[in-house]
Amino acid sequence: MTTETTAPSNPRRRRFFSKTDKITLGFFVGIPTFLHIALVWFPAIATIYLSFTYWTGIKLESIQWAGLANYENIFFNTPIFWDALRVNTIWLLWFFLIATPIGVLLAYQIDREIRGHKFYQSAYYLPVVLSLAVTGIIWNFLLRPDGFVNGLLGLPISEAISFFGDDRYNIWVIMIMASWRHIGYIMLLYLAGLKAIDAALREAATIDGATEWQTFRKVVFPAMRPVNIIVLVITIIESLRAFDMVYIIYGGRGGLPILGVLIFENIAGEGASMKGAAYAVILFLLSIIPIITYLQQQFKEDVK
Amino acid sequence: MTSAIKLPGKKKKRLYAQDIKDRLISIFIGIFAILWIFPILWTLWSSLRPYKEIRAGGVFSPPQELGLFNYQDAISRMELPTYFYNTAVITIPAVFLTLLFGSLIAFVVTRYSFKFNVAMLLLFTAGNLLPAQLVFIPVFKMYLAIGDLVGDRRFLYDNHWGVVLIHVAFQMGFATFVLSSYMKTIPKEISESAMVDGANVFTHYFRVMLPLLRPPLASLAVLMTTWIYNDFFWALVLMSTDSKRPITSALGRLQGEFVTDYNLLAAGAMIAVIPTLIVFFVMRRQFVSGLTLGSTKG
Predict the structure, then answer these.
(1) Could you tell me the residue range of the domain that residue A281 belongs to?
(2) Is residue A268 part of a domain?
(3) Which residue did the predictor score with more confidence, B3 or A34?
(4) Residue B136's pLDDT band (boundaries 50, 70, 90)?
(5) Across the interface, do B29 and A109 touch by the CB < 8 Å criterion?
(6) Is residue A172 part of a domain?
(7) pTM for this one?
(8) Rounded to 5 degrees, what angle do the CA atoms A151, A180, A118 make?
């Protein structure tokens, strides 16, 4: 907006640059940009290239072209990849259909300043500041064989339900744990958005006789479009990249297959190979649409 | 607000119904909220009891001994001070450099018009969104190669500076994005008059802009500290010596090691949570505004 009005003054201003100013500006931009490109963009592009090769060690000469072999290996010879993809899809659907709507609902009710809203807000927000590693440990206290839930069910240790070991339960238990943090996060983002909405808008709708649901759907939700997009993008990215919590629950060995842990097993430690690079590229491709959506949303005005 | 206005009977009835509904919603959300903090309270409770009591009498056995003994044990046996020190030498420089570099780029991009301003911003913001796994392999090999070059394999790999650099490189993108959208709201006239007064670029940044950036810098500092403190991935993959790892990553190993004394682990986890709880109670305003700065622009 303001760029138009200041544009004519630019040539005039540029004349003020002395030599030291030019050098200073060069350093100001140069050092951070160099670091960012060298440690983010260059490696990202290198990984895409490496996913078509075989490479162990650090000597560049030992890189061998592999064509699509790594990808073929993943798609046709690694059934666990499909298991992981299935789990990540369930994760995404759960977040999208259950956790995110709950977060939005909470934000909406808390924003209406219902009784006790300050305490509620704090309670839901608390898990957001905890690391996922700590989250894993905390929930283990409830779910381990001699933990709270098994105690509540009156099961002795020998008959206790293994919530993380049993395939019937583990995915749902982990979904609940992940939602514990996700819901609070979404609530915070949405709450900030709701605060920015003109209260008169909602009051007008109420006076016109709109029910609460109608007000939300027809007035509040459309007005929240920018926040909705961010929330959607975060929901997708978080469910694709889930790693920490599952890693810490199973100590990095097996357990519930998810893409994040699968990639980790293939890029770091003894199992490292360029198959891991191919996995990372697949993860990147899966998250490219949300990334672009996010950038479009944020740069709408700038690109005009 | 609306109840102060005289309303016809029908509307009044509706408001009354709404009141009851609100109360029910409040109770429902309240029960949910107590369930929400229960896992933390339970861990806290467990950390105050000896594990042998639970082994003997089950989780609901009445406590005979209550105290901070698990905490004393955790501090000495888990070497928590070492891990806290490791966290500090990673988090403090990383947050400082992220804010410095992010504000420099944002400053140049918003205060000086170059052709590639938007492209620069896009580069940094998009870079921040790339998955960490996508950049790991080359970073790892580069760290090793640079280490060989200077004759010390642990120059960057398995060294806290290596972890600091990758955090700075990544988080700089977010800081740049947030700070540049904030700087756009600062009137250009301030910069123009500074330049007319003969301020060079250096003075313009340090004396004029930086003081104005205090609020978003504070929010970002709190947010970045929490993120880097909570990071698990980078410290796990870029460090091989366990005693150099920060506390969050160390918890993973401690969990395996102290599996025989779970309540000790509870105390360890509670201690590890203290810095984030400080953020929660003392600096929540900054944390929340930092979190939402990037999301509710425009």
Answers:
(1) 72-303
(2) yes
(3) A34
(4) very high
(5) yes
(6) yes
(7) 0.88
(8) 110
